[in-house]
Amino acid sequence: MTNINSKIKEILINIIADFQKEEIISQELNLAELNFILAEPNIQKDDQTKYNYATNIAMVVKRFSTKNPMELAELIQQKLILNELIECVDLAKPGFINIVLSNKAFLSILNNVLDSKINYGSNLFENTDKYIVEFVSANPTGFLHVGHARGAIIGDTLVRILRHVGFDVIAEYYVNDAGNQINVLIESTKVRYFNLFDIDLQMPEDCYRGLDIVWLASEIKKEYGDEFLLDFELKIKKFREICISKLMDKIREHLRELNVSFDVFTSEFDDIYNKNKITPIFDKLKNHIYEKDGATFLKTSEFGDDKDRVLVKSDGSYTYFTPDIAYHNDKLSRANKLINVWGADHSGYINRMEIALECLGYNKEDMDILVVQLVRLIKDGNEFKMSKRAGTSVTLADLLEASSTDAIRFTMLTRDANTKFDFDIDKANQKDINNPVFGVQYAHSRACSLIKKYVPNSPEAINDDFDEKTKKLIIQLDILPDVLRSVAQTKKVQLLSSYVMNLANAFNSFYSNTKILGSESEASLMIVVKAVKEVLHNTLELLGVSAPEQM
């Protein structure tokens, strides 16, 4: 069902279409590209608090008419007031149109929410786009750290929202298990494994020295005993598979604890190299590659890169760029839209990957790349730097031990991905209304409590004459589909957490200042409460956060 905001936008567009027929507005105006604002007035003077919406449409279409904005606004006003969803229309210079919704409109919003239930705000896009959202994709060389947690939460939430609004979405993890980092992992784990049998092997300079490698070696010893002490080189393939498998199992375990799931795990080694996904891309790239000094280059400088990029080195081996191109080519054989959630250390890689897609014959607009900036953990006012598990940077497991999944997810969704973020453990764990996730969950539990206590009369006397504060709360419910549409278009998941915080604040204020149970308007107000509860629950679900019924 369409929300009221969208219905009024449609009414306004139809009015402009009528004006084109009446030659009040030129046919040069393309209605499909008409972009105007319809929102709550930003500045509310005492005599303006009644207005639910304001629009600038008269000023936007002015350049397609001989009439001035106020004259156009008056003509729009005359048509708007005839609609049953609208109670009153007032004008303000230089051409703003202020709208008061009718009581029928407010009941329509509530009924829309309650009839739609979990599907409220769903299926907003009627197209066949299929997305692959690739996120986390951490090397299987150790435990996930805090930075991975932020990317995991953002990627998982985006998947949930895109599915809700109507897209076919695959959540995918790319396992980088074919590069030199795996050789380093094997050598590091081998040394720790041999050390457990009092065999004094020295750790090379460039090896992984974290406690997660000690854990991995201990797990291998526990399960396989001394199997790998003799003829190690003959058993290295099995040792490699065990190392990657055990670390990926641990990565999956920690992601599940964070309420993050994937549909597909694509292995660089098994799915790209072993399935020969690399060789075919050279045919697709043939007009954009050349050989020099025994190496093969991609002409990325022709597309604005600072230099051409090597695909095949003079020794015949691939650079890391080449299997990445093959992987993106493979993804675009399975979907027509890609979203990559990358860490800030990959920022310089974005341009060349977009160029590679163009060289393959794709449109670079078919790929969105979200850059996730670094996270600092703050505890007792100081940065919390060291992991007790890994002996290196703070791991996801450390974070999950220090705070709840709900607090971690919600807090990390309150900021733009491309801004550095301080996660204050003490604030995230506060059990009061000043903690955003607590405030939202508390609002939900309050609504649930009222619903449990409510004993309806038969028949219920529904009074649709809501006061202004209640109307503002109802308008908040109507906004959700527009917020979800914006998230799907911009990929900014923080818009949804901001929305639900505003809704929770509005409901908590309504709850504290309104007599609900036992009032003359009890039945009507309880419809509002039920609708708020539904939207809070659904929004928290989209954010991957629980919605407790009591706190």
From TrEMBL:
Record has Heme as a keyword: no
Q: What is this protein called?
A: Arginine--tRNA ligase
**Which Gene3D superfamilies does the entry mention?**
Arginyl tRNA synthetase N-terminal domain (3.30.1360.70), HUPs (3.40.50.620), Isoleucyl-tRNA Synthetase, Domain 1 (1.10.730.10)
DALR anticodon binding domain location is 440-551
Subunit structure of this chain's protein:
Monomer.
Q: Name one GO biological process term.
A: arginyl-tRNA aminoacylation
Q: Which NCBIfam families match?
A: argS
Q: Which domain of life is it from?
A: Bacteria
Species of origin reads: Mycoplasmopsis anatis 1340
As for family, the record states: Belongs to the class-I aminoacyl-tRNA synthetase family.
Could you state a single Gene Ontology molecular function term?
ATP binding
Q: Which PANTHER family match?
A: ARGININE--TRNA LIGASE, CYTOPLASMIC, ARGINYL-TRNA SYNTHETASE
